[in-house]
Amino acid sequence: MESPNRAKKFIFFIILLVILGGAGYYAYTLGILPDFFRKKESPVEQSVQEQVSVFEPVAEPILMPPTHIFITERNISADIIEVGLQTDGTLDTPKKWNEAGWYKKGAKPGEDGNVIINAHFDDNFGRPAAFWQLKNATVGDTVLLEDSLGRQYAYQIVDSLLVDINDPDRLKVLEDTDGKSELTLITCGGVWLPGKSTYDKRLVVKAELIDSL
The whole model's pTM is what? Predict the structure, then answer.
């Protein structure tokens, strides 16, 4: 049978080990132990820690092409298709009278730059087409663009002008303005030229982004 003194020494030794172990772990978590007591991280572990988490918020919004345009004050509502340039360098127009065309190399809704959309004023028989009522649009009207994700972007009209089809500076209305998200709507205007089967001017409506919904 063990003596009481020996049993006490054993218990004291166990308590001392627990205290020392706890103190060592606490010092380790605070980072005050020498480096040789610490586990060295492998290059792979260091690389993984330095990587940005895939769950972090995306810095830039995902922007999509427009699919529909509304100007409720002027009873304008039209689906939008993508268009490019014709062989002579001019902007192509939709094949359907009731559709609008978005220049696919221009800005997307909500993006800094110029969102360029055109549509027919009337059809071959002079009947109203998609942008027939654009001639009545005024400063302050709201233009809504809906993208392929169903999001809507509100633009407010700031200017409306007629540009001659032979004006050497006519393409300036398509240029971007730094730091702005702009919208340019284009349709026919002015006087019909029977020999050329077109109008002598283009109606250009300019708008600026005010909100995304």
Answer: 0.72
